[in-house]
Amino acid sequence: MAESQTKDSINEGFIFDDHTVVTSIDSFLKKIKTLSNIEVLHYITDKKNDFSHWIGEGLENKKLASLISKEKSKDGVIGVLETYLAMKDNTGNIPIKSSKPKTEIKKVETPKPKEIPKVKGRDLFSTEDFHPDEFKKHTQPISKEKEYSPKSKVVQGPVGKEEVLTEKEAEEASEELRNAVDEIGHVCIGQQLVIQKIFLCLICDGHALLEGVPGLAKSLLVETLAQVVNNASFHRIQFMPDLLPSDIIGGQIYNPKTATFTTYKGPIFANFILADEVNRAPPKTNAALMECMQEKKVNIDKDEYILDKPFLVLGTQNPLENKGTYALPEAVLDRFMFKIILDYPSRKDEKIIITENSTTNRGLKKRANTVFSKERLLELQGLTRKIFISERIRDYILDLVDATRGLNKNVEGFKFVKYGGGPRASIYLGIAAKAKALYEGRNYVMPDDVAFVAPEVLRHRVCLNYNGKAHNISSDKIVEEILGIINPV
């Protein structure tokens, strides 16, 4: 059945997975109202290019396509579309860019437009302006920084009074961290956001799991990370199926001449460890690594050795291969504070990579300059704990983690979840949000800090059931839906 031709219709409409074709905003809105939250997110993320082309090019409204693609829930998409249609109905004009020449229309007296209704709690803005910034200002809650900032330099903590970091100290620490990220960015081109997240993990005294296809400079990134810290040591451990625990932590060698045992230390004794392809080693070997990560110490025979600080383990795994690999158990994954996904660099960055690796100076390996000492890095880890986090932020963190456990009935994607994050997820969300605040030069946590680190903290702690895996649902989609539903109120 062909739909009536309107100003916002085109010959070729948007095609859904069930082969339904829509050619107007009205029909598109009616269709998505019948879909689940996960299915709607599938169309505006996985099929973002097709969707953006239909609205941006076909309907000549790139701003509307951009606004919808930024939404993180079904209600958000519906709210944007209903806002758009309400504006069109009241003005008679569609706020789009058109390549057709404008024709003069004589002004005629029209009745005063009816008041635009509120759509799903959103305060709709003036119909004369459809600028994305103005839309964001009217449709999203404005965070009041005073509600989250400390009222004094000393606050009452759970075990007594706690000192809060000063604004000056936060700004100085932020400058150092940004300089370090920039230094690594000069060597590892195109991974600026990943470098920032690794530094957040570092000043939280945690560990990170990197997942990405081969050739994205994961090894180079960790090696360069050790260069910005003065006198920091770096070791790489290539995990293989025949790797033994003693190959990681060390052991004892018998000397027949002296009839004594000599202890030798393994590669785990370093400040920065790259556990390359960590999922290729058997569980017995991974158990030895997990003990070092959790306890920050090594037991060889009857002797105990404390690992040098700072101590950071960056594990990597390749998502393309599963032959000769062991799926990391959830208990092992939970030891990693972050799970960071590496993507391909942009075209611009990759062009720079080609240039730098195809010149006559290719043999001269670039190095990052030292930014701070190991002692200063340990101080930054201590300063992170002094960032103020309000009661409202704690409640926001608990709401997010509770939603992964199915305690929020508005999360439609929970039907695909086997179990959610544990208490360690709540702890890491709080500490990582403090680190993000310090990186931004603030001495208090904002809701945006929590939302920034939530995907890295939660994606490997939300375990999908068989139904979710069968429908090819990712844990990122579940986390994205939760962030779109839970508000810091």
Report on this structure.
By secondary structure, the chain is α/β, with parallel strands linked by helices. It has three domains: 114 residues, no CATH class; 206 residues, Rossmann fold, CATH 3.40.50; 100 residues, Helicase, Ruva Protein, domain 3. It has 19 helices and 17 strands. It has a five-stranded parallel beta sheet. It has a two-stranded antiparallel sheet with strand order 1-2. The chain has a two-stranded antiparallel ribbon with strand order 3-4. Strand 1 and strand 2 form a beta hairpin. It is globular.
Secondary structure layout:
Blueprint: E1 14-15, E2 21-22, H1 25-32, H2 37-46, H3 48-58, H4 62-69, H5 74-91, H6 132-139, E3 154-157, E4 160-163, H7 167-187, H8 192-203, E5 208-211, H9 218-227, E6 229-230, E7 234-238, H10 246-249, E8 250-255, E9 260-265, E10 272-276, H11 283-295, E11 297-300, E12 303-306, E13 312-317, H12 330-333, E14 338-341, H13 347-356, E15 372-373, H14 374-385, H15 391-404, E16 417-419, H16 423-439, H17 447-458, E17 463-464, H18 466-470, H19 475-485
Parallel strand pairs: 5-13, 5-14, 6-15, 7-10, 10-13
Antiparallel strand pairs: 1-2, 3-4, 8-9, 11-12, 16-17
